[in-house]
Write a structure and sequence with these properties.
The chain is of the alpha/beta class. The chain is built from 5 helices and 14 strands. A 6-stranded mixed beta sheet has the order 1-2-3-4-5-6, with helices on one face.
């Protein structure tokens, strides 16, 4: 299992292309610059099977429709944010003077969904709300990696001042879901560099209370 990180858009969002030896791929959070994302997919010579969204903020959904239409693949999102794709107030783009939307998702996930299998990929779904109500993290146990969206960053945590954000809930999510992963787990965030669970346990100033 490998992944390629593409940093896109004005707020430097991280889009991930996960791929395997079967040349299958999953695209996580195609946030902007769809041509750059499609070019990377073509360069890797992989076949995308689906798009997964950790949450529906504007900087994570801007390239969804272009990538989905190009490869005719399904889109997965937590049902709590299904209407955020078309609501510029909820997805935050209106707050920044923009109007960024995407068409409806074909698959809605819930808090009761613990696993997601697509092709030969098998993800554990971790409900990690707080940054937004429907934020989820995708854990690939075999690769010792978790795609945490904007819940947890290297040395920081997600902002909670946008629509539906709640810092107490976010800290609880991080403590109960992410900090329980093995310390060697690589954390692949929605912004910034990668880190590990162990490194954040030791040095993240926002998690000192845990």
């Amino acid at each position: 299992m490998k992944w390629k990180k593409l940093t896109v858009g004005p707020v430097q969002e991280n889009t991930y292309i996960i791929y395997n030896t079967n040349n299958e791929a999953i695209v996580i959070d195609p946030g902007s610059e769809s041509k750059k994302i499609i070019q990377a997919i073509e360069s890797l010579k992989v076949k995308p099977l689906a798009i997964l969204l950790t949450h529906a903020h504007f900087d994570h959904i801007g390239a969804v429709d272009d990538v989905r239409d190009k490869y005719q693949i399904p889109l997965y999102i937590h049902k709590k944010e299904s209407d955020w794709l078309s609501n510029t107030k909820k997805n935050g783009s209106n707050h920044f003077g923009q109007s960024i939307t995407a068409k409806a998702a074909s698959h809605l996930l819930s808090d009761q969904d613990n696993t997601l299998k697509i092709g030969s990929f098998s993800f554990e779904i971790l409900s990690t709300p707080g940054h937004s109500p429907g934020s989820i993290s995708f854990y690939l146990k075999g690769a010792s990696a978790v795609f945490s969206g904007d819940a947890l960053f290297a040395g920081s945590i997600g902002r909670t001042d946008l629509f539906g954000g709640n810092q107490d809930i976010l800290l609880k999510s991080i403590h109960e879901k992410l900090m329980n992963l093995p310390e060697e787990t690589i954390v692949l965030s929605g912004h910034g560099p990668e880190t590990t669970i162990g490194m954040e346990m030791d040095s993240n100033p926002f998690l000192g209370g845990f």
